Amino acid sequence: MEINLTGTWRCAEDNGLYEIRQFTDAANNQFILWYAHGKAHDRTWANVTKGILTSTTIVDHDGKKVKAIVNTDWADVPSAENRGNGHLSLYVYDNDNMVKDTQRSNYWGSTWTRVKKKAN
């Protein structure tokens, strides 16, 4: 799969920082894991998710080509004040941009962009 989501991401709506790891299991399935949290020292929310990454050739409602879909289940962690959990589906447009497709929960974020590393 040409998509590589491993890295640090920022969500526009919650200003959260998302550490994402993409990996392949023994059956050649693509998965992501993430640990996400709000601003430093703000324990209002932090969550983890596991999702499966699937290639696709669909076009979204704006006519943009979607390269992959990530279907995840997420949950807030015990150290955070929030106690949410649910399902979240993401459209992956390229290695640097994802948007929320559908949700059956109260997940706030909807637009993710990879954080670019600063040149040395």
Give the arrangement of secondary structure elements.
Blueprint: E1 7-11, E2 17-24, E3 30-37, E4 46-55, E5 68-76, E6 85-94, E7 97-103, E8 111-114
Antiparallel strand pairs: 1-2, 1-8, 2-3, 3-4, 4-5, 5-6, 6-7, 7-8
What is shown here, in short?
The chain is mainly beta. The chain contains no helices and eight strands.
Structure explained in plain terms:
The protein is mainly beta and 120 residues long. It has one domain (7-114). Helix content is 0%, strand content 51%. Strands 1-2-3-4-5-6-7-8 form an eight-stranded antiparallel β-barrel. The mean pLDDT is 90.
The low-confidence runs, each spanning 5 or more residues with pLDDT under 50, are: none
In round numbers, the mean pLDDT is 90
Shape: globular
User: What is the SS-derived class?
Assistant: mainly beta
Number of strands: 8
Helical content (DSSP H or I, runs of 4+): under 10%
The largest pleated sheet is described as: 8 strands, antiparallel, barrel
Strand order of the largest sheet: 1-2-3-4-5-6-7-8
Whole-number tally of structural domains: 1
Report the span from N to C terminus: 30 Å
